[in-house]
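Technical note accompanying the year-one report. For the benefit of new consortium partners, we illustrate the data format agreed upon in the data management plan: each record pairs a sequence with a structure-token string. No post-processing was applied to the example shown here.
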Amino acid sequence: MPKRASTSPTRRVSVDQSIKRLREQVAHLSPFLTNNSPSAGLEQFDQATERLISDLFGETSEKLESYEMAQLGESSSFVNVLEEAQEGGVRDREHEGLHLRRRMLESCIAELEARRATEAKKSNAGSELVIGPRIEDYMMSEIRSVEATATLKEAGRLMQEWKVGSLLVATADEYVGVITDTDLAREVVAKGLDPSKTLVKAAMRKPLITIESDQPILEAVRLMKGKATRHLVVTDQGEIIGVISVSNILQYYSGVL
């Protein structure tokens, strides 16, 4: 399967994933609220939050405008008007601005949750309703790979360095297979091969087993069981965009966000 371009095209992000990203941003805001110097590092946080809101709601959205006003300690249609800070109340004013930011993010989350509920109601009557996030919500979007002509020793080193259980196997212009930690153990230990001389292409699994990113988690479980594999290559309209493994799926079933 051909490699994807270095910059992936814009693709639809699920409502569940968008909500998750906003909740993570709320969590990142918490340390500022307990910091005696909340302004330290706040500019970078605001820039990241503005990019996120812009991605999810648009560059001209009221949500983005409201967040920008929150940074100034002002109000919008989504937040309460700030009372004038008393003399010497700079720190209180800073913390009130932080609370405004949090309320704006929570407002964004609430809107997306309402949107998700509306989409669920619009599901066709009698059709099978899939509950829960999709594969794109839990996959690893960063693709790790190893050359087909590399040795098994090099593949093992990369897995250890990147802390992953599988690598896509690449040639000059395409991905041709997958090598996993299980494959390494089976080929090296069980067969007594020399990892410093045996090439990855001799032990890789092929062809690639793929699944589309908008499929529900349950479909990944079914495919893994049917194909006797612990790793699937995730695609978006046929283009590789990530990998999902058993460990990723366990995050969903264990309730970890």
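Partners are asked to follow this layout when depositing records. The CA atoms of residues 68 and 212 lie 37 Å apart.
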